[in-house]
Amino acid sequence: MVSAAARPPSNVSTGVRLGYAVGSFCSANFTTIPGLLLLYYMTNVLAVPALLAGVVVFLPKAWDLIANPLVGQWSDRTTSRWGPRRPWLLAGAAVLPLFFALMFIGPPLKGVPAGLFVGVMFLIAASGFALYEVPYKAMPAEMTTDYHERTSLLQWRMIFIAVSIGLSGIVAPLIAGHTVDGYRVMGIVFAVILLAAMIGSFYGTARAPFTGQQQSAGSLRAQLRAARTSKPFLWLLGLSSAQTLAAGVMLAGAPYFAAYTLGDPDAKTTLFAALVGPMLVTMPLWVWLARRMDKRGAMVLAGSLFALGDVLAVGAPALGSLYAHLAVVVVGVGYAGLQLLQFSMLADVIAYDGAVSGERRGGVFTGLWTAAENAVAAFGATIYGAVLALGGFISSDPENPVTQPESAHTAVIVGLTAIPAVITILGVWMTFKYDLSADRLATITASETKETKETKETAAPEA
Description:
Elements: E1 2-3, H1 14-21, H2 24-44, H3 50-62, H4 64-77, H5 86-93, H6 96-103, H7 111-138, H8 140-143, H9 147-176, H10 180-204, E2 209-210, E3 214-215, H11 220-228, H12 231-261, H13 267-312, H14 316-319, H15 321-357, E4 359-360, H16 362-390, H17 406-416, H18 418-431, H19 438-462
Parallel strand pairs: 1-2, 3-4
Helix pairs in contact: 1-9, 1-10, 2-3, 2-7, 2-9, 2-10, 2-12, 2-16, 3-7, 3-16, 4-7, 4-16, 5-7, 5-10, 6-7, 6-10, 7-16, 9-10, 9-13, 9-15, 12-13, 12-15, 12-16, 12-17, 12-18, 13-15, 13-18, 15-16, 15-19, 16-17
C-alpha cells in the first residue's frame, strides 16, 4: 500500500476499489459453500449422522476464536514494502485452496470416519482462510478517513460478493449434484477460483492508499482488552453475530428446504438466485439509505426486512414454490443491507479506535470480528443439524435413499424460518445500542487532529 501522501486520504481510486473487491470471491465462496453444502454433503452423500455433521461444521470455525486475533496482531505488526496487510494475502493463498479441494475430495469412507476426515480438512482450510481474511478485512479502515467513503468503497465489494454468492449458491450445487464425483469436481473448480481471487486482490491493492496509525506496540492481551472495552465494537459485534447466525441457519437449511418442503432438490439454485438478485440491484439504494438514515437506521431496516422474509416463508408448505421464492427475495433485500452496512460500520469502529488510541489495532479488531463471524455462521449449521436430529431426520447416501418421517419435514421448515426470525429480531434490538454515528466519529477525529496539530506546534520551538 502506498502512503497517504500519494493520494487524498478520503479518495480511493476505481482501480483500487475493483482490485480490493476481487478478494470477495474468496470471502464469499469459502463462507457460502461450506455453509450451504457441507452439512448436506455429509448427511446425504457420506451418511454422516446429522448431529455429528453439525458439530464437524462448527468446530473448525471455533478454532478461529484463537487463530484470528493472533493473525490480526501479526498483520498489525507487519512492516514490508508491500504494506502491513498484503503479505498475509499470499500466506492464505498457499493454504486455503488446496485444503478446500480436499474437503470435498470424497474419501472412500462413510459415516463417522468420513465426518472426521472432512473435519480435519476443514480445520486446515479455515486456518488458511484466517491468514487471508483477517488482514483483508482490516484494509478498508486504512484506505480512507471518510465515514461515507467507506460505505461507497465497500459497495463495490458487496457487488462482487453478490456475484460470488451466485457462483457458490447456484453454480456450485449444479456442479456437485448428488454424487461424490460431482462434489469432487466442484471442490477443485472452486479451489481454482479461490486461488485466483486471493492472488488478484494482492496485486489489485498494490496502489491502495494507507492512512493507518503507527504500528501497534502493545501485547495481544492488551489489544484484546482494548477491544473488550470499546463499547461501539462490542455492540456492533453482537448485532452482527446475531444476523450472521440467522443467515448461517438459513444457509444450512436451504438444501433441505428445497428437497423436503418444495419437493425439488434443484430448487436450491433458484432460491439462491432469489437471495442474491437483490444484492446486485439494491446496493446503491442501501448506500443512499445509509446517508439518509445514518448507518444504524439503515441497519434496523435491513434486519427488519430479513426477519419479515423469514416469517413469510413459514407459509411455503401451503402456498407453494413461487410464494417461497418471493419470501426469499424479501430476505435478500434485507441481507444485502446487512452485508454492506456491518462491514462499513466495522471500518468506522477501527477508525474510531485509531483516532482515540493513535495505534494500528485494526488487525486485532478484525481478527475478533472474523473469528466471531466464522464461528457463529458455522454454529448456524450446528443449530440446524440439532433441529433435524430432534425431528428424527434420517441420514443416508445416494445408493440407499430413505423416507423421512413427518416430524423431520416439520423440523426442516421450523429450522429455516422461525429460528432465524427470532435471532434476527434480537440483532435488531442490539442495533439500537450501537451509537457510533457520523457526527460522533467526525467530532472525535476533528478533536484528535486538532490535538495532534497543537502538540506539533508546541514541540516545534523546543526542537
